[in-house]
Design goal:
- By secondary structure, this protein is an alpha/beta fold.
- 34% of the residues lie in helices and 22% in strands.
- A 9-stranded mixed beta sheet has the order 7-1-2-8-9-10-11-12-13, covered by helices on one side.
- The radius of gyration is 21 Å and the shape is globular.
- It starts with 7 loop residues before the first strand and ends with a strand.
Length: 314
């Protein structure tokens, strides 16, 4: 039988000394792969289940060393000045890049315009990095697993958080909860705090915005409400035209009251992930959407608070 500590998961970042996503100073572990494809995603490098090429066009000088190094002929040059200004000097065939195991082009680039996001790591690999930071946060901080969605690697994350608990490290799970209930049940004994979104209550609208229904999400939230509502911090991203209707917010407030969730964070839309879509060879689909104003955010908070729920504007 395979040693469970040798299970592997695809990790795209480990951030030390973070002050977000849980109390105190934390180590945030970001897992690659997510069942949802939200149009406004701020971490698009966390969506796919394969390592991906990051291309920073501002660093590229068009030397084409990457094209010469690529064994799959996945790199070609742009010639039109308008294309070069918009996309950079080179074009990547992402269908080939995402199949590549060696990424020879990255080593060939002297300008550091290329990198790979996503590394297969074992539980032991991740625990070594967590222990490195643990003396800083042991009493007041901890570890947060995020993504993507860590619950797409249920056995890995369960073992990781179990080991953290055994070493006295506080744990937080940041998940969309769009997974089978058994994946959530397995990890529940090892989670001190749940950070999870409830974006859109209407199923069809949820599908249109994220590519997936919300039935699993609601089912799992109800299970948490029944077992440990005090551990749940529900978050609502306020995305104009998608999640910000007062009807949607009212439904979310009623759901919180029904399931005894006492705290909600509302998060205003931002465009901080737009350049990441570009670096991955994609296109940000919401360039013209504007951030909600303070009045809108306060009104949303008032609706949620009318259900006896504390609402914090982040």
């Amino acid at each position: 039988m395979e040693n469970i500590c040798e299970l592997k998961a695809l990790i795209f970042d480990i951030q030390s000394f973070s002050t977000h996503d849980g109390p105190g100073i934390r180590t945030n572990v970001f897992f690659k792969g997510c069942p949802l494809q939200c149009l406004w995603c701020a971490n698009p490098e966390g969506q796919k289940f394969v390592p991906e090429l990051f291309y920073t066009k501002m660093k590229c000088v068009g030397c084409m060393r990457c094209a010469k190094a690529c064994p799959y002929e996945a790199v070609t040059a742009y010639s039109d000045p308008a294309d070069i200004e918009k996309y950079g000097y080179v074009r990547h065939d992402r269908s080939k890049c995402n199949q590549c195991q060696t990424h020879d082009c990255v080593r060939a680039c002297f300008q550091n315009a290329l990198s790979v996001t996503g590394e297969w790591m074992t539980v032991n690999d991740v625990m070594k990095k967590i222990r490195r930071d643990s003396s800083v946060y042991r009493n007041k901080g901890g570890i947060t697993v995020s993504g993507g969605d860590p619950l797409v690697y249920p056995e890995f994350v369960t073992e990781l958080l179990k080991q953290c608990h055994e070493e006295g490290i506080n744990t937080a799970l940041e998940s969309e909860l769009c997974v089978p209930a058994k994946s959530l049940k397995a990890i529940m004994p090892h989670v001190d705090l749940y950070l999870t979104d409830l974006k859109i209550f209407n199923e069809q609208k949820h599908i249109e915005a994220t590519g997936y229904g919300n039935s699993l999400i609601l089912e799992n939230l109800r299970m948490l409400g029944h077992n440990c509502p005090e551990k749940v911090c529900l978050r609502v991203p306020v995305i104009p035209g998608f999640t910000d209707s007062y009807e949607n917010i009212d439904s979310i407030g009623a759901f919180c009251e029904e399931n005894q969730f006492s705290k909600v964070n509302i998060l205003p839309y931002h465009k901080l992930g737009a350049t990441k879509h570009e670096r991955l060879g994609g296109e940000y689909l919401m360039p013209d959407v504007q951030e909600p104003d303070d009045g809108k955010m306060r009104r949303i908070a008032e609706i949620i608070e009318s259900y006896g729920v504390e609402c914090i504007i982040n």
